[in-house]
Queue: 4 jobs
Job 1
Amino acid sequence: MIQDYFGQTIGNVKRAMLTYGPSGRSRGTATIVFRKGDAGQKAVKQLDGVKVDGKPMRVELVVGATEVPKAPAPKGLADRVAQQPKSAAREKNKPKTSVAAAATTNGATKTKAKKPARSGRPKKKTAEELDAEMMDYFGGEAPATTTTTAQPAAATTTTGGDAMVDEVL
């Protein structure tokens, strides 16, 4: 049926081959070889997209390696780099140069206030503030500023096991 249809609508068919799956059922693909070379191009123009049983038929032209047109020579690196589009993200991050930094109202010039460099971060705490927080956390008093000497640690034994006691005088 395929050979007859293409033979009547396009031209003389040399051979028509259907593709079958492992179960013996048709995969819906056929290869048609025409007697004339221009008949394939005519089939693509006239029958590609024509509906068969409600589904569009896809007609593709398959040619031999000798008939394929040569690929164009690749462009040089300089040509390809020059054609790269600019990044939209970079443009958004750049400050606009056309916007003035100062505005005038009734003859007076007002300058825009600069944002602080550490916006969103708390300011650094002093050593005294950090010490006070440590004392609050551990629940102790401020250490005295007296000089102490360290003695070697003495180990004692109790009936429940070994315990180490550190003494600082």
Job 2
Amino acid sequence: EGPFVYLSLVGNVANSDGLIASLWKEYGKADTRWLYLDPTIVSVELLTVVLDGLLALLLIYAIVKEKYYRHFIQISLCVCELYGCWMTFCPEWLVGSPNLNTNSWMYFWVYLVFFNGVWVLIPGLLLWQSWLELKKMHHKGTYVGKKSW
């Protein structure tokens, strides 16, 4: 999303050249908000690039080094991603989806549903993983006498 934010802030994707711009132009056939400066989209993506990018790097470090805060970061990152997906599409749905190409099977099912669904499915699965790990840690702590109640 970094190149998208950059292209949107210095101009727009529709008038940009290059490989990255062509990828966003292709996605723009399914969702035209990605072609021009849509304040909601650019705001969400700006936050995604900065905050989620830093959280992702910190999460990689926490996983590799087996840090105690790994699941806190993982949950935070997943919630940020799910919130970003919600804020990308909910405002559009509320106004009748005028910028979404729902007439084309490929643009609707492949670009909008499948590709965006991945950004919901993976954080959902990682949240489930963190839930199970935290539950396991809690039960382990309960059985070794860590709970004083």
Job 3
Amino acid sequence: MTGDSKPRVYLIGAGGSISFIGDFRTDYINYSYRNRHLTIEQMLDNIPEARDFAEVLPEQLVNVGSANITPAHWLQLARRINDIFALDAQAAGVAVTHGTATLEETAYFLNLTVKDRRPVVVTGAMRPPTGMGTDSDINLLDCIRVAAAPQSAGRGVLTVLNNEIQAARDVTKSNSYRLETFRSGELGCLGYADSDEEVVFYRSPARAHTVDSEFDVSEVEELPRVDIAYAYAGADGLVVNALAEAVWAASWPPAWAVAARRRSSCRR
């Protein structure tokens, strides 16, 4: 890379609110009814400023609402990012657009399965690009800027929304309506994509991630299904029994199912 070269950032689109097209400017909630999306190329065209500081290579993985993202998409995304880093030594980082409802899950999965120290940054939007006061453009611009910044490397997978850079391991969506919804609890954000166009970090995650993670999905074709039963005051055995029946019927070897039922009967 020459001194005059811009950092090369791969921009992968997965859909979500950041891409949805609503019918009117105050439609902040129900814009998904027609399932219309901007493509990742159209989204990039909306922020020509990004090309001032990065060579951006867009590609569309999928274009769906975040509720339609599945573990199969996680595997597809992780493999594509690992391929990018393996095949392009000049890639500075990868930026990913995603729906906010499952953004934290996808980001954390990538935090465990991407095998490179170069930055992977995930963003979304709380207001669609057709909405008044949308955060789509600035979040996308910040995502590319953080992915292009050399100081972002080695910190694991990051998210950036509302100018705040968060660690994928810590961040969670806390509100369905507010722009400042992504929070890291008592740990706080890692830094900011500031208004002066600087990317500033104040801390780094200490827990194992990416190249130091023990997870490797390079040979994995399908992730196992894991269902979760919540415990709460007044809960009975209905959900646990229903999940157990479904799992035994769907995926357990017959001998396991027989043994599990026998053990369950003995405990009653």
Job 4
Amino acid sequence: MTFAFKDAPNTACIVCHHVLVGKNPITFISHDEEDGMWQFLCSEDHTGEDARLISLAEAFKLDASIGQVADIPCGYAVERKDMLAGWKSCPS
């Protein structure tokens, strides 16, 4: 799948360690209004200790379906129930 984001592949983003180690799928994505940073999280509760910095390209390699929402503007978020469900807008 072709890299779908307008941001550079080496853009830093946040992912929870549950997603990074393959324990859980990405079920929540936010594109932060303050700094434009992307966050890719699972549905578990998180603390600051759960956060990891990776490149946007690495996040895309973990789950190429995030490319389906690569055009969400800053200040918005999407979520899904599981890997098979479609993305839906939600409060960020």
